């Protein structure tokens, strides 16, 4: 795979996987535009972390509309004429809905989602950061985000499992599955170079990058 030909690259993974940091680094290295999930503009997110069951539905609906709008703006402005690196896949909303919503809420979310006319753009490449829940918990504690301290371990385990299920079956775009437990893609340019070189060597639609323990 020639990264220079990729117009739309997505970095994904559960909370604490390091997707935003990697997306920033990839965008900088490849001289691409950067499209990040706008967490701070979701008016329900803070309350969601404090009371998940009560605010799950409005939080997920807000993100659904936000992601749609962000992708529409990029398509309308340049049609991905300039390469874009993003830290979210549009379909991630379904994963969070599956984990956080009860049946009635889930059915409503599905109904609303199907009523929103939108041609979802397909990435040229998805980089999925796979991390054990225990490592996610450790990273979240280390980075000290006050809101994230409300996240329960059970929630992270269920979310990680849903991510693994989804990407095990994902076939809409070429995907590089990265075991990011033993590499530092946020701060080590050496590790970043190793990953980008491995992506350039991709010959199939699903490949793996695993450096191993250090």
Automatic annotation (TrEMBL):
Q: What's a Pfam family this protein contains?
A: dNK
Give residues annotated as binding ATP.
Answer: 13-21, 139-143
Q: Could you tell me which residue ranges the Deoxynucleoside kinase domain spans?
A: 9-199
Q: Which SUPFAM superfamilies match?
A: P-loop containing nucleoside triphosphate hydrolases
Q: Which UniProt keywords apply?
A: ATP-binding, Kinase, Nucleotide-binding, Transferase
InterPro entries documented for this protein: DCK/DGK, Deoxyribonucleoside_kinase, DNK_dom, P-loop_NTPase
Residues at the catalytic site: 87 (proton acceptor)
The species this protein belongs to is: Nitrosomonas stercoris
Q: Which GO terms describe its molecular function?
A: ATP binding; deoxynucleoside kinase activity
Does ATP-binding show up as a keyword for this record?
A: yes
Question: Which Gene Ontology cellular component terms are annotated?
Answer: cytoplasm
Tell me the lineage of the source organism: Bacteria, Pseudomonadati, Pseudomonadota, Betaproteobacteria, Nitrosomonadales
Specify the protein name: Deoxyadenosinedeoxycytidine kinase
Q: Which domain of life is it from?
A: Bacteria
């Amino acid at each position: 795979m020639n990264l220079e030909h990729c117009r739309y690259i997505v970095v994904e993974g559960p909370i604490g996987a390091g997707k935003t940091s990697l997306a920033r680094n990839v965008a900088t290295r490849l001289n691409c535009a950067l499209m990040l999930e706008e967490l701070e503009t979701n008016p329900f997110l803070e309350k969601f972390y404090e009371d998940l069951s009560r605010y799950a539905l409005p939080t997920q609906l807000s993100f659904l509309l936000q992601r749609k709008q962000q992708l529409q703006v990029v398509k309308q402005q340049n049609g991905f004429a300039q390469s874009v690196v993003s830290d979210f896949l549009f379909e991630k909303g379904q994963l969070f809905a599956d984990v956080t919503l009860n049946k009635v809420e889930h059915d409503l979310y599905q109904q609303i989602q199907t009523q929103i006319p939108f041609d979802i753009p397909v990435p040229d490449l998805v980089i999925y950061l796979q991390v054990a829940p225990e490592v996610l918990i450790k990273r979240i504690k280390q980075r000290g985000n006050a809101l994230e301290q409300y996240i329960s371990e059970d929630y992270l385990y269920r979310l990680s499992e849903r991510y693994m299920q989804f990407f095990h079956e994902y076939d809409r775009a070429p995907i590089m599955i990265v075991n990011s437990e033993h590499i530092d893609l946020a701060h080590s340019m050496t590790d970043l170079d190793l990953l980008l070189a491995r992506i350039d060597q991709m010959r199939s639609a699903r490949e793996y990058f695993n450096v191993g323990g250090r």
